[in-house]
Design brief:
Blueprint lengths: L8 H14 L33 H24 L3 H16 L1
Helix pairs in contact: 1-2
């Protein structure tokens, strides 16, 4: 393989969330960095600019992954009430041929 090999994406997600769970404040923060107007979230504290061990790209990918999971779960919840309507229609359709 040419260049460095990337880690497993599931492992990156797990490690970033694990770091965010166990670290409430920045560690080994450089004196040359400054706080923005907004306080960073616990997941953002994993970025290297706040003293965390992960690159900014990895942390942003994890945040995007969880946004996608939230959208998928919310759209899946919309179809649950209509499940019985769909299955009843299929059963009636099959019963017309058995008749």
């Amino acid at each position: 393989l040419v260049g460095t090999q990337k880690n497993n994406p599931y492992k990156i997600v797990y490690n970033v969330l694990n770091y965010a769970f166990y670290h409430k404040s920045p560690e080994n923060r450089s004196a040359f960095t400054y706080w923005e107007n907004e306080i960073p979230s616990r997941v953002d504290l994993g970025k290297s600019k706040y003293g965390g061990p992960f690159s900014e790209e990895d942390v942003e990918n994890v945040k995007t992954f969880w946004r996608i999971v939230a959208v998928l779960l919310s759209t899946f919840g919309l179809f649950i009430p209509y499940y019985h309507v769909i299955t009843d229609g299929v059963v009636r359709y099959i019963n017309t041929f058995e008749g």
